[in-house]
Amino acid sequence: MSLDILKQGAEGRLYLGEFKGESCLIKERFVKKYRHPELDTQITRQRMKAEAKAAGRCLAAGIRAPRILHSDLNQHKLYMEYFGQAKTAKQFIQETVASKGDLSESILMELCSRIGSTIGQMHSNNIIHGDLTTSNILINPKDTDYEVVFIDFGLSHYNQASEDKGVDLYVLERALLSTHSEQPYLFDAILKAYSKDSGKDQEAVMIKFEEVRARGRKRTMIG
Amino acid sequence: MVCSLGIEGSANKIGIGIIRDGEVLANVRRTYITPPGEGFLPKETAKHHREAILGLVRESLKEAQLEPKDLDVICYTKGPGMAPPLLVGAIVARTLSLLWEKPLLGVNHCIGHIEMGRFITKAQNPIVLYVSGGNTQVIAFSNQRYRIFGETIDIAVGNCLDRFARIIKLSNDPSPGYNIEQLAKLGTKYIKLPYVVKGMDVSFSGILSHIEELAEPNKRKNKRKKATDEITDEGEVSYSKEDLCYSLQETIFAMLVEITERAMAHCESQEVLIVGGVGCNERLQEMMRIMCLERGGKLFATDERYCIDNGLMIAHAGAEMFKSGITMPLEDAFVTQRYRTDEVLVKWRQD
């Protein structure tokens, strides 16, 4: 089995490999030496399990996520579907803004509406992603169109509490504000689409979201 | 040539620094130290600062061997921080500015930390981890502002450490964090604590409540939690202060390193700079260095002279602002408790 290192992400190293004849992506959560060994083992196992579980739950609910082919807890390796043609939403947004000029806003609004409704579906299935950033959303070309794929479910969990859903949205808002500060309209578009698809808890989640936001604002206080 | 005097007094430290064209001429500081088990309150802290500040101004000018006429600009901390201590610095800065007929500049405290760290370490465009008693932020420069990529969603990491030090009655001299660090070196047993990372954000309040219960089980209000087998018959707990300090540091620093690593991957950066009072903790620096090595990155950190709040950082950031042509009319020379890092338009950086 050949192992070509693709890149080093935040959580581990990514390789191209194959599993039972199918080419795939291998995500290795190598031992983080800065962490206490006990803590490291616990976190690594927990996140690998969470990732495999959530990806499976998403697929079952009809949400596009990488198929997990195999998980090797002892070697800290997860074998999953590889999207060779995809780019991250972060790249996509930056490239669109750079190349499409005046058209970019409507293209991005369409993207945000798809992202928002997918997050809504996830939440209505009680899947909390836990790390929503534009680096963790892939844009995968499909015929003349594209599909939105969510990846990196390491911090995800299964919970129906509106608090967790609110925090999930807050994390995304903050990531968008810092990464795409020149396109302030993105999050509003996501939220709009989200409201339509997030199921019966929609109102409670929005109230919680405002609450979490207010907690964040308090942080402006002390230096 | 810009010669700048900076006054910092946003929390329990009051400091004056003088810098001339990148040459450090003076950096003096006094810390308001409270008895073990007590934190510093705004009113008493302001009183401490009032009594110390004029002596410090004289001391700094003497150390720098300068006369007031040699200065080009007076800088002070505009915020964020506690209002009464901030006001002490602002009033003295306004008075000196009028008295010596020098321009006045209000500086954002967080920006002061970042610019000081960049100046001392010569880091070009790092991901900044800003950790102190009031702030926990992961910052990257983009589009003329220091953008906050991750931060605490409740209390600051330094606040968590300080409050834990109060619970176990550690001395506040020289600082609670330093004493925790020393005790932690003696700890051997790792006690499992909650580990809370949400994307690039972290949370510490739950960890504090949890470790509070471990440290003082008799005070436990939550009776639903069943006693663990490590509690002996008298209700005494076998956790030592050393082990608690050790485990607390290992857990919360691992969280900080993790969100920094996330920001590095997200922004595709290879440099990390640690600033703020907690930044002089050597264990945190060591963990961060290991993480950087694993990704082929580089760590920049400073020691307590520049990490902990000081006047020099205000003088330096103010000098950078002054050079880029920023001015401030006297009417705007107020203080504000709320002043986010990303509110400041960074005119002095061209990248």
UniProtKB/TrEMBL annotation, chain A:
Catalytic reaction equation(s): L-threonyl-[protein] + ATP = O-phospho-L-threonyl-[protein] + ADP + H(+); L-seryl-[protein] + ATP = O-phospho-L-seryl-[protein] + ADP + H(+)
GO biological process: tRNA processing; tRNA threonylcarbamoyladenosine metabolic process
Cellular component terms per the entry's GO annotation: chromosome; cytosol; EKC/KEOPS complex; nucleus
SUPFAM superfamilies: Protein kinase-like (PK-like) (SSF56112)
Primary location group: nucleus
Pfam families per the UniProt record, alphabetical: Kdo
Keywords annotated in UniProt: Activator, ATP-binding, Chromosome, Cytoplasm, Hydrolase, Kinase, Nucleotide-binding, Nucleus, Phosphoprotein, Serine/threonine-protein kinase, Transcription, Transcription regulation, Transferase, tRNA processing
Enzyme Commission identifier(s): 2.7.11.1
Similarity-based family: Belongs to the protein kinase superfamily. BUD32 family.
Protein name: non-specific serine/threonine protein kinase
Underlying gene: Dwil\GK20053
UniProtKB/TrEMBL annotation, chain B:
Keywords: Acyltransferase, Cytoplasm, Metal-binding, Nucleus, Transferase, tRNA processing
GO CC annotations, alphabetized: cytoplasm; EKC/KEOPS complex; nucleus
Enzyme category, top tier: transferase
Coiled coil: none
Residues in Gcp-like domain copies: 24-315
Essential cofactor(s): a divalent metal cation
Biological processes, Gene Ontology terms: positive regulation of translational initiation; tRNA threonylcarbamoyladenosine modification
Cofactor note: Binds 1 divalent metal cation per subunit.
SUPFAM superfamilies registered for this protein in UniProt: Actin-like ATPase domain
Chain positions recorded as substrate binding sites: 130-134, 162, 177, 181, 281
A GO term, aspect molecular function: metal ion binding
Gene3D superfamilies associated with the record: 3.30.420.40
PANTHER family xref list: TRNA N6-ADENOSINE THREONYLCARBAMOYLTRANSFERASE
UniProt family annotation: Belongs to the KAE1 / TsaD family.
Protein name (database record): N(6)-L-threonylcarbamoyladenine synthase
Source organism per UniProt: Drosophila willistoni (Fruit fly)
